[in-house]
Amino acid sequence: MRKTSATCGICKTTFTNVSPGYIRNDRENSVIEYINVEHLRHVYTINNENLLHGPLRVYYPSGRLHSTVDYIYGEINGIVQNYYDNNTNSLQQTVRYIAGQRTGDALLYYENGALYKKLPFRDGQLDGEGFAYDLKGRITAQYYFKDGVELPSAPAAAAAAAPAPATPTKSQLKSALASAPASATVPEYDPLAGILITN
């Protein structure tokens, strides 16, 4: 059966009429093939609930693999991989998805296969320490992320991760005042400011 829509039902990009999409049906799933405006050929499966379910494979016009993605009931699950359009079809990047969210280290590679960058993800956001590398594997840059925001340095990352200091309770303050030597200046507690005031 010929696919009549000019827009991908998944990524919403418009595809050309160079190679119209086709649907192959079996009892449970429909396999869809089409070429988008960038001339990338997509092959994926939707289930009887019209959700992506199974592998999505994208190919360059050269026929080499562009990317691989696995879906379970409409959500990305598993390792997503992108490839270079070169003679060896070498790996460009890889990242793990769990229930549609990036989790773990995203790894980016130079075309020769050497590691270029490692970026940490947790619950779909950049979170943790990342690195960039030169072609010889030496670290050229270091990154720190907290809840999707890049921090300027490691101390700032540690400070952002550190718990806030606890406010002393009234009983702790009374205990500290009672144990103070008689000659010492007695601090006064300001409950509105939440601080001790000394004379």
DSSP strand tally: 17
Helix content: under 10%
Low-confidence spans: 15-20
Biggest beta-sheet profile: 15 strands, antiparallel
Structural category: mainly beta
Instruction: Determine the number of helices (DSSP H or I, runs of at least 4 residues).
Output: 2
In whole angstroms, how far apart are the ends? 87 Å
Order of helices and strands: EEEEEEEEEEEEEEEHHEE
Radius of gyration: 28 Å
Tally the structural domains.
2
Can you describe what's shown?
- It is built from two helices and 17 strands.
- With 199 residues, it is mainly β.
What keywords describe this structure?
199 residues, 2 domains, 15-stranded antiparallel sheet, 17 strands
Summarize this entry quickly:
This protein is mostly beta strands and 199 residues long. The protein has helices at 154-161, 170-178, and strands at residues 22-25, 29-35, 41-47, 54-59, 65-72, 75-76, 78-83, 91-98, 101-102, 104-109, 115-122, 125-126, 128-133, 139-146, 149-151, 188-190, 195-197.
